[in-house]
Request: fold
Amino acid sequence: MDEWNITPHFEDRVRQSFGVPEIRTEFVNQLNSDLEKYAHNKTKKASAFPKLSPVWTIVFSLLILLTVSTLVIGPQRVFAAVRGLFGYIPGVGIVDQSAPIRILAEPVSVTRAGITVSVNQAVLTDTETRIGFGISGVPLSAYPHGEKVAGCSDREYLLLPDGTRINPNAPIPTNAKQATFVLPCISNTLPGSVPTNWQIPLRFIPAPPDLVILPVIDVTAPMNPIDDNTVAGSDLQVTETTTLAQAELHVNQIIETEDGYILMGSLRPNIPEGSWLQITGVPTLHDATGKKISYSMPDNVQPIDTGSSGQGGSDWALQIKGAGVKFPLTIGFSGVVISPIDTQASASTTIDVGMNPQPEQVWELNQEIPLAGTTIRLLSVSAFSDGYSFAIETGPTLSSVSVEIEGYPALGGGGGGQPGGGKYSTSLVFAELPKGRLTLLISNPMKVSPTESWQTEWQPQVIRDFPANPQVSNSQICLTDENLSLLQSLPNGLTGKMLLTELNPDQQIVLQNFDGSQRQLLVSGGARGALSADGLQLAYFSAEGLVIQNLASAERLVLAGRQGYGLHWSPDGNQLAYVTNLEFFGIAVTDNLGGNIRQISTLGYESIAGWSTDGMQLYFAVPSATNDGFMLKVSDMTSGQVHDLFLLKDSSRKAPYPTISADGNWIAYRAGDNSSLYLMRMDGSQGHKVIELASSGYAISGIAWGPDENLLGVSLITPEVPNGKIVLLQPDGCEAYVLPALQGILDGMAIP
Amino acid sequence: MTESGFVLQTQKTSSQLHETSLVQTARVDPKAFGELYQLYVERVFRYLYSRLRNVHDAEDVTAQTFMAAFESLPKLRDDHQFASWLFTIARNKAMDHFRHVKYTDSDLDGTHAHLKYDSLSVVIQSEQSASLAKLIQDLPEQDRELLRLRFLAEMSFPEIGRMLHRKEDTVKKSIYRLLARLHSQLEE
Reply:
């Protein structure tokens, strides 16, 4: 096929196969209108302003005011003025507070067919509306499963009392005291699977005076000494920028939160057109003592878009806690610059690989090839089963080149080398290995700079005092970033066994003493086993089905056709609960011989928390419609009735791993950051954190209780131990120990 | 060259001249940017949706792209390269978006990944389209990008070449080889 016999029909099919929906007219008109307004302001000779996404329309108007104000009253008073305009509402985002703000009078929810849609919050400003809504109880069966068919994608909207339909982010006129939130369908669900056309009546009231709105403070290097008398109560922030050759890093705005700061800034490339700045690694923050400061990226604060993020520039927002931080902070980014040398340069050479090239066959060439005014050296070509690899010495000026084999389109490939140039290798994969005399086309010479780092400093003008962990002041956190590396090994005397899923070198289920002795490999290739309370039975899923293994006799019962996850033994070892998406969608309970199977719930993504001590009730958690955690539910084994218990507040949205202690008094669960751990009494009281690991790279991968509430085991993914570091806690006394001989995902614990 | 090919070529050239004139006008009169916006908004959205697979994100990044383009238009060196420049901004914005999502939504265990509401699935009208979509989905990223730029962004070969720093002829050959391969794989 050449360019003249590709039919328009085939091109249309390619186009359609991307499945791109029609662009919404409302969006096109709204953006057009925003651009017109911006252009109008620009023609009035306003300066170029930074932009904020997605609420950039607010920012435009604010920054126009900022510029005009600068001329009139000078930078320090502008700062004070800006403070009055921008506001950050925790959990909502940045809003315009130049006009009265309204909020939702009360959360409203509607439940149909076991599914709840809840509008939890709304913030209305003159320029936009923020609606927070959640959905719970949608069965997994309602979503597409491998059919390559997308579910419903109709967007939600607001219906005003006069019948006007508006985008849910559009401003609601101040005279409209109510509106209807309309959800035509639940996103991505299949037709007919769940109720559609959800209509939720909303009522709006003026924001109460105590609504927390934190100022967004523009960071400006002071032109003159700060006069505290001029700006009463000023805490003007100071930032210093180090400008290096390739990029500039700035802190542009900050928000003072209750326990620290949100920093918003930009990394601006300063490189020739056509080059690209590639950020490598993650940002780093260090305080004045050199201590690494942990941070998060707040998901409701979009970094300010400073308008020149082309060429790999980036806008960012980082949130830190202030306790224990010595200012100034040093913020660091690192990256490389990728630059084309000569886009027109090309060269070719030939190689004869014969008619029967073999995998691992190598042709040593050591051939010089002029390219882009320099000379590269094709060292060798190696064959593998479905392609070739090319070893190239690029010389000091180039870092990479593209290689093609003329007439043989590659299915894929890859390459790598040293950033500063030198040796480079690239490979090409083909549907069928090219044979015979091959023409190699070499082009696209690129240069990658050595890794550079960019830093900036920032410090608040007024140092605030931050109490350590104010939100949990009545309880003690046993494990933090600070003491994790200082943990002692478990002292002699406490013995027991742990059921682990080891990940390295191979995935396998093992049972091992706390001190690492008596390691038993139970299932090679298996994962996430469940140990019965007496430690005698192991259950796990394999390709064969659900396997129940007697650890004393080594007998195996294979229940073919059963698949799922989250296995939990009842206390007496006679029943097993698990979540399945195969037999049906929901929690299944079966006896230990695989009989008497019952369906307990209907979703297919529940998290089983455990059994009551008498085995008459099963606890599990599901995402709540309020979006602030999973809801703990209980199912009565006799009546089959299920009811809500309480919210596992701030639980992980991905997998909270709720785990009830064997005595039924406490529940442990993974927090929203996935690296902290809460304990809560089974009546929903006394929720508190016992582990708080804020640094990036940490995650809790498994939780298991000992025989009572006094011993809790946790496996932690850490940068040093990515397979899982095992820690034992005694929550009462807040003692914590590391088990250095063990690694893996913790699935169970048995104390003799 | 067929007649229809010639007509297509002529129309393209004419449209490019008009576009260059719009860019020049927009430099001095920001209000004229609106015409460029109308010319490109759908193409930018289609391109971004194909990368982000989410209407909301695609709209958000489309807005960011046009605002950045509007703001940076004075920096555009060659008025004939508006399309390459605009889609470079769009691609960079998409990458920024992914970087942000990666930082804020790193899934350490993968559990509950199915709960993400915006499916990666594509709308498929027929079994044959499904086969083609699967073939495209399995292509290396650089090949998918070529198809996006050509068929969703509707860029010419020289425009794609400028954007990807590749020769026009190389781009052209790569795309037609890609189409030929897809075509033959479909017929197998």
Remarks:
- Residues 43-83, 222-244, 469-474 of chain A have pLDDT under 50 and may be disordered.
- Chain A touches chain B through 87 residues (CB under 8 Å).
